[in-house]
Amino acid sequence: MSPPARRAILILAVGLVLLAAVLGTLWVMRPAQMNRLVEQAGPQIGGDFALVDHDGRRVTQASYPGRHLLVFFGFTNCPDVCPLALGEVSVALDALGPAAAAKLQPLFVSVDPERDTPAVLKDYVSAFDPRITGLTGTPEEIAAAARAYRVYFKKVPVEGALGYTMDHSAFVYLMGPDGRLEAFFTHETKGDQMAKKIQGFLGAS
Ligand code: NI
CATH number of the domain at 45-202, out of 3.40.190.10, 3.40.50.150, 1.20.272.10, 3.40.30.10? Predict the structure, then answer.
């Protein structure tokens, strides 16, 4: 193949990837599409879990009766995605106000139980908002919870003092008191948008 032809193919490929990225973003962000996705994928996402909260208590889904759960998986050494998402969650909690926020339990589930002890988690989440509860557990318990929520995570070795980081998917799930998925957000969803969407579900129950 001649160099110009190769360059043309490369430019076309890059263009297609960019186009796909833009369409992908629009597709994720459109509320009607999101509602359809919740309808289709909703029944597959969620379920009971058996973990330890940041005060060292054993908890399950039944530990939060009558409350909506805002569930996010991550880890305290996360450089960007987790702090962004938790920052937006705290903005959402403030926007909802105390009465609405009382109907909602935000849960931050660690995918790095090796380093995220209850004490480490408590320090971390309370820096964002004291209403957020950190959850950890044995590797098996974390894996089971992640499976229930269709969360991907993987340990990745890195240079430097940390030794490894965690790759992980970063959806924030809003679960109803009945344990069903009501909505989900990405780490890029703004806190006020999140609050508006959550308010719609909190009002109904
Ligand atoms: Ni993260």
Answer: 3.40.30.10
